[in-house]
Sequence to fold (485 residues):
Amino acid sequence: MSTSVATRVAGVDVPTGHFIGGEWLAGDASFETISPIDQEAIAEVARAGEREVDAAVGAAAEAFPDWAALGPGGRAPYLRRLADLIDANVERLAAVECADMAMLLRSLRARVIARGALNFRNYAELAVAYEERDWRSRGTWNRVQRTPAGPAAVITPWNAPFMLSTWKVAPALAAGCTVVLKPAEWSPLSCAVLAQLAAEAGMPPGVFNVVQGIGEEAGAALVSHPLIRRVSFTGSPETGRLIGVAAARNLVPFTAELGGKGPLVVFDDADLDAAAAKAAGQYDDAGQVCLAGTRLLIQDGIRGAFLERFHAAVDRHVLGDPREDATTISPLIHPDHVDRVAGFVERALADGQRLVRGGHRLDGLLFEPTLIEPTRDDAEIVQREVFGPVLTLQTFTDEADAIRLANSTAYGLSGIVYTGSLGRADRVGRAIRAGVIWVNTFLVRDLTAPFGGVGISGIGREGGDYALDFYSDLKTLQILDGSVM
Fold:
């Protein structure tokens, strides 16, 4: 493999190769990445195969013993320096990610990139603060020890690629694992900048590696590699099943966040203005958010009043260039994804579902905010994740009916409930099958809380000590009382 080159994206020099063992390498093949903003090619990126993946995993395995031996206190300064560098490079990272996946530039600048820095900073502190559990039992003294598991494979999605990569990489490194990251091929560039910053932070060679490439090639080789000891994936249930099988062959623990079809439940005692505004906000990022409440479940007595407010809020959306401050809905990620979203809408209408608003492609990769009122609960548009600006509207009679509808899909990632009653919030929140429920708010995250899905929305939990435990092996040390001094 030869030394790689860089390309200029949105005024930023971005490496286009693999970052392996502290060096940038080009490899023998490449793939093209386009900007959703204008559908123009912005980079020719190295395309890994088994050889590059094997080199990256080998580098991670070689670096692991020394990295693990540093302990949480020895690793923390590297993570803190990386967090500081992310904060210092928000503009560069935001410009690259906006060009690569068309997320709103102002959102990237204001909160998304900074969340990446927060991930590294918080996990450094959580790992240092961890207290081993001690107790006495049956004449012995016992201690549970957390030890680093080994090289970890991290595969991340194309939506919010920088932040979601840091969400996995930070706890893995803090726990003492070394990492091989494979970003999604539709938006690989901000993760290359992350590798640049890791090198600048002084991360030892091989501790953090990035291989670029196609999922069926580089991703498949990575998750099946015999030296990988942990696998963390975010993406579709279909791909998650394949990765889970590959991890199981090597008896490797596997965590996956696999998308959602979340309910947004509005009761008749709710603040309708706030609920309708939040429902219209589910179109943010062109609906490319796994946690979005895409199924609007509205108590039947307030349907008209809710829709009046909802339509007014949606009408205020501005579709356009994500670099413009006025834009609130940006283009979808890729022409193939536009076809996928449009296909869901076309099949729904052909199946007799009622179109309430939207439903059309616009110029470029834009798609209208769309609302469909299903004629039956088992319709495809209700049951499958669209991952675009398409919501459904169903009505319910009472709490039991709302819970029935909320739990009527195979997904279980998140849910949103609007109500003025604390008792109802507790009852309904407990009854909805999901990994997280927000009440009268949305997308507020405590990094120490568990995060993950049930059903086909995933397996395992991320966040706080839950993530640090995943990237560790837990060991019980048991010593006979009085046998040692």
The two ends are 55 Å apart (CA to CA).
